[in-house]
Design a protein that fits this description.
This protein is an alpha+beta fold and 166 residues long. It has one domain: hypothetical protein tt1805 (3-Layer(aba) Sandwich). The chain has a 6-stranded mixed β-sheet with strand order 1-6-2-3-5-4, sandwiched between helices.
Amino acid sequence: MFDDELQRDEHKKISKEIEIIRRPFVGIVSGYHELGYRVLGPELDEKAGSVEIEGRLMVSPKLVWTPSEMQKTFGEIFEDEELMDTNLVGRVFAFPKVVSGNYDVTSEHLKIKRHEWSPDTLIEKVIEEMTRCEITDTAVVKTPDVRFYPVAVQRFIYDILKDEFS
């Protein structure tokens, strides 16, 4: 997953500094649903302001099983050995990346916006907006480095699952 030890150390440092400012109030429901998140942090050039990454997670119902307990492979379980690798080990999740510093990215499930405010001011404004608009299904996550926003989203997911399965 990491190219070198330096990346691994930076990942650990960032993970420790990520802070869940606000959790969704609606909680986990049993069927398919969406949970929103807003990851907020400083622009790469600290004097430039802050960045807001807004997205939504698609959450499936609880599904926990291991093929070894059923003495079958993934290919046998999904009844499609041509498309489904019989020795499925993992999956890859990709996140959009923008190379230039002057950007606004928007898709159906992801928006990246730059702001001139400091990260602390941005947090205040986002919390105020969410309270005013009664947005209850969205988390606010503060990160020290927005380049690692997938780590912040992972931390948000971990936080929810820790409570749900404990």
